[in-house]
Every structure is written in C-alpha cells, then in structure tokens.
C-alpha cells in the first residue's frame, strides 16, 4: 500500500512522539510506524524512573543548591571528554542542550502538565577534582509520574491528532529500507508483521504477512539504540572498557535492536561514535522478567561497600553512584562479570532505589500518601523488599561469616577470598571509631549528608556494617546492565541527518538515542544522568519545529 504524509516517524518512543506532537500543533499530517504492538506505545521512556537534568531550577534553589549554566558547562565538558573531529556537531548539541536545561525546558514541560518531585537527586557525583567528571551539584529531577508522566502530554497530543485526522498510527510495521530518489530520502518500505497481543516489553512475533511502502516530505528515525542486542553491544565494545562481559542483563527490551541505525547508514547517513556506550554496573536479575535477561538497576546511595568478584574493595573514587563508566572499566579489568555490594538493612532502607516506573508505584501513581509510607515508613520500599525476598542476587544473613559463605555458594566458580572480604569489612568498620578518618568513602558520605536532600531521604548515617542495630547484613551480586548508545546518526542542530562528507541528507532526520541524543553523541564518553530522556525531548522538539517550518 502507499500513503502520503508530511512526515513519517519511525519509532513510537518519546523522541518520536515529541516530534509528532510539534507537527500536530502545526497542523501537519504525520504517520508513525513501529514494529511492535500498540501495547509498547511510548517505548523505553515508559519504563524509566523519569529523571531529568535541569540547571538552576526552582527545585534546586528550594533545596539550597546554587547552580549555574557556567558550572553545568564545566561539568559537561569534563565529563564528555570530546576529543574527535567528528564531535563538532555533538559539541554544538551539548551547548544547545545546556541552554535548554537552564532555560526553556522546565517551563515548556510545566505548560504540558509535567511536575517534579521536590527533592533533587545527586547522580554521577564524580568524586574527582573540580575539573574532573561528574555533577558538582544535585541536578536529577524526578518527574511526578516517572516515565509515564513524561510521556503523558505527548501521547495525549498524538491521540488528539489521530482523532482530528492528522496522525496515522501503524503498529506492527517494520521498516526494512529507506526510499532514496536522486539523493533525497522520500519514504520508507518494509514488512507488515502479524498481529500480536504481547504485553509491553515482551517479545512479539516476526511473521511477515504483507509488504508496505510510504512516502513523505520528511522521514524521522526515532528507533533507539542497540542495548537490547547483546551481540551488537559486544561488537561495539571499546578496548578502553576492557573485555566485553560474557554475561549481562538487559535494561531494555529485545526490540531495541539497532535496526534503524543500519537502515539509515545504508541510505547514506553517517554513523559516528558507535564505541561510546552507557551501561550500568549495578544490575540485578528481575525476579519477574518481562523480556529476556530482564535486569533492573539499583540506584544506590554512597554507603555500600563495593567489592569485586574476588572480594577486593574498589578503589577511590569508585563508590556507589559516583562514576558509572570508571567503575565499569575497573571491573572489566578484574576478569569477572559480577561484583558485590555488602551493606546493611539500614543502608538499604534509606539508600536503595530501583530504576523504573514499575518499581516505583508511589511516584508513578502520584500518590503522596503512598510515597510517605514507602519512603519514610519502616523498612525498605516494597519493591526493594520483594527483591530481598525473591531476587536471585540478594543474600540476607545474620552474621559476617554466614554472609561470606553464602556469597561463595551463590557463585562457586568465582575466586571469592573469604579472608579478603572479612579484612575489607573489618578495616572499613574500624574507621567509624572517630567522626573523621582516612577512608575516602566515609568522607564522601559525610559530605553528601551536608546536602539536606541526601540527609533527609537518600544517605544513611555512617555506621559499622557489623553493628547488629543496623542489621541484618546483606550482600547483592551485581551484573553489567546494558542500556544506552551514546553514538548514532550524526545530525545538525535541526536534527537533519548528515552524510559522511558532512552535508545534509535531504529528507532524513534523526532524534533520540538513534542520534546519540543529539549530533551523534552530545554526551561524549559519559553522561551526567537525567540527560537521556532530556535528549529525547530536545531532539524531538528541534526536529518537529524544523519540519513544521518546511
């Protein structure tokens, strides 16, 4: 079949929906195609914790945080580490995004009904010098409603566009190629897949029942990255991060498979920075998996003792929540695919959060009463308690010796040294005899508690791990969790795809993760967090506005 629209958007995730919403507001006709069933509408953003990076926001100021675009730019430059000629557009996107995060972003979202949790989180704390990577101040703003709350206004606009005859939604339509005529992208072609009632995130069938072709003045690639395809992740894995893990868990569904990137490249778009990626080292196996190898990320506070698979403590400043990729590179040098948190009930109750809308029903459901019960009541959140009870990676023990023995039993082939684990715990605990010590992690914990938000709900008071008043002792086995591609289709500041020679590829745009969240990699080597959803918002907005001007 052949249909005509002003714009075709490939992928029904956040970035594509933002672009579509802008086009609907401009009265343009839009067709959205996605290979998955309609249950997946909203893409990966639906599963997210809903964290957004903002600079000098009212929420920060109310928490006593002094931030500025100058400090944010300093942090971004130090974290990104741009060092390649092809980073030129990525640098421009980073500067544009910082202007967005310090300017229009919050008001633009609030106009659409998006609100924020009042306590600002401190992700990627860095732990190095002022000129090193990481956030100098808390900037992680959690949306009231988490990922679904971010999606809500854009889904509503697109649904209204459907009612008004401006938007056509075509699920179970897999794009196999872009149509190129005289050097211009003029449409798409592909396969119609058989209907499937798979739930959100679950695998759907790939049975082809028909072919299709569509044409439009603009085609927008919004198909995401490669995090669900472990073979592609391993193929792109850079030497600087050590060897790729043999065993990983997936933070995204299997349909995040990188197909759109290859299709765009075949049509003439330039892919860059494919070796830059963002994977977490605090992944745990989901006790109730939705997709294959489904993992959940622990969002840790800074207090757990972090050990490698042999039982050796990670070096400073590789503390929980400080330097994601620095920790990943270090752990890959150990030759083992897992590491350990050794912690206590008191630490877990205050410091353990789980990433994902489904793991935070209080925030997702916008329930103040439930939030107070879950976050300030006795015990950990129900989601964390469920993992402690049913998760394959959690060990709860009454004594240090029992804990270590069960750690060995959980991974009997790993060379865990019980004497080393015992030494690390006892040595760390001796540093609690005074309110000061040479232990850099304890100094960092005390520094974190100087921020009222951390002291209130995020960072436990320092205590001995073996203090029975804070028990029981808990060990958590951690896996590498695949998540984001930091590279992708190179674009200009209107999200127009570029060719290998740096020229605009007429008719083709790229947004979200498919575009490295801007320019083929606005994060450089590392993220400051809260910038993935924000990158989808920013690129989708700029693409929608640019196409609307045509």
Summarize the structure.
This protein has helices at 14-25, 58-62, 69-80, 88-102, 104-111, 146-163, 230-236, 259-266, 324-332, 345-351, 361-364, 368-376, 382-390, 400-410, 418-430, 440-448, 452-457, 532-548; strands at residues 2-10, 30-34, 51-53, 140-142, 167-171, 173-181, 184-193, 208-221, 249-250, 271-272, 277-285, 295-299, 305-308, 338-344, 353-354, 394-397, 473-485, 488-489, 496-498, 504-510.
Describe the protein.
- The protein is an alpha+beta fold and 550 residues long.
- Strands 1, 2, 5, 6, 7, 8, 19 and 20 form an 8-stranded mixed beta sheet that branches.
- It is 33% helix and 21% strand.
- Helix 1 packs parallel to helix 6 and helix 1 runs parallel beside helix 18.
Features:
550 residues; 8-stranded mixed beta sheet; alpha+beta; single chain; 33% helix
């Amino acid at each position: 079949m052949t249909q005509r629209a002003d714009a075709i958007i490939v992928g029904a995730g956040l970035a594509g929906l933002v672009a579509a919403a802008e086009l609907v507001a401009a009265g343009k006709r839009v067709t959205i195609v996605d290979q998955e069933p309609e249950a997946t509408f909203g893409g990966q953003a639906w599963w997210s914790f809903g964290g957004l990076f903002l600079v000098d926001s009212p929420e920060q100021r109310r928490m006593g945080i002094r931030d500025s675009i100058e400090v944010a730019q300093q942090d971004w430059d130090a974290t990104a580490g741009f060092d390649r000629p092809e980073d030129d557009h990525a640098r421009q996107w980073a500067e544009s995004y910082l202007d967005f995060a310090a300017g229009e972003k919050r008001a633009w979202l609030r106009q659409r009904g998006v609100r924020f949790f009042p306590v600002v989180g401190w992700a990627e704390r860095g732990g190095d010098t002022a000129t090193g990577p990481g956030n100098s101040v808390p900037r992680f703003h959690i949306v009231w409603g988490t990922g679904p709350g971010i999606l809500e206004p854009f889904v509503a606009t697109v649904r209204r566009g459907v009612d008004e005859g401006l938007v056509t939604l075509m699920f179970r339509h897999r794009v196999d190629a872009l149509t190129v005529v005289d050097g211009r992208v003029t449409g798409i072609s592909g396969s119609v897949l058989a209907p499937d009632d798979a739930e959100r995130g679950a695998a759907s069938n790939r049975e082809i029942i028909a072919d299709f072709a569509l044409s439009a003045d603009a085609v927008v690639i919004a198909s995401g990255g490669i995090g669900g395809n472990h073979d592609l992740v391993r193929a792109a894995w850079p030497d600087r991060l050590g060897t790729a893990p043999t065993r990983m868990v997936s933070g995204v569904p299997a349909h995040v498979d990188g197909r759109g990137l290859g299709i765009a490249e075949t049509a003439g778009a330039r892919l860059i920075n494919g070796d830059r990626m963002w994977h977490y080292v605090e992944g745990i196996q989901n006790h109730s998996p939705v997709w294959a190898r489904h993992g959940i990320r622990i969002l840790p506070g800074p207090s757990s003792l972090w050990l490698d698979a042999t039982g050796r403590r990670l070096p400073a400043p590789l503390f929980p929540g400080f330097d994601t990729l620095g920790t990943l590179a270090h752990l890959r040098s150990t030759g083992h695919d897992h590491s350990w948190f050794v912690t206590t009930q008191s630490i877990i109750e205050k410091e353990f959060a789980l990433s994902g809308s489904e793991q935070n029903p209080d925030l997702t459901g916008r329930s103040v009463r439930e939030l107070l019960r879950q976050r300030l009541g006795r015990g950990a959140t129900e989601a964390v308690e469920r993992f402690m009870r049913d998760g394959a990676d959690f060990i709860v023990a009454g004594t240090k010796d029992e804990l270590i023995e069960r750690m060995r039993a959980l991974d009997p082939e790993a060379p865990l040294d019980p004497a080393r684990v015992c030494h690390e715990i006892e040595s760390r605990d001796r540093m609690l005899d005074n309110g000061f010590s040479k232990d850099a992690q304890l100094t960092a914990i005390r520094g974190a508690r100087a921020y009222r938000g951390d002291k209130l709900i995020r960072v436990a008071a320092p205590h001995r791990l073996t203090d029975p008043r804070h028990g029981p002792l808990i060990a958590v086995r951690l896996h590498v969790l695949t998540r984001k591609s930091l590279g992708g289709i190179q674009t200009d500041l209107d999200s127009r795809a570029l060719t290998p020679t740096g020229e605009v590829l007429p008719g083709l745009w790229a947004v979200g993760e498919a575009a490295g969240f801007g320019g083929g990699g606005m994060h450089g080597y590392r993220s400051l967090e809260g910038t993935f959803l924000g990158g989808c918002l920013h690129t989708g907005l700029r693409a929608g506005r640019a196409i609307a001007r045509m």
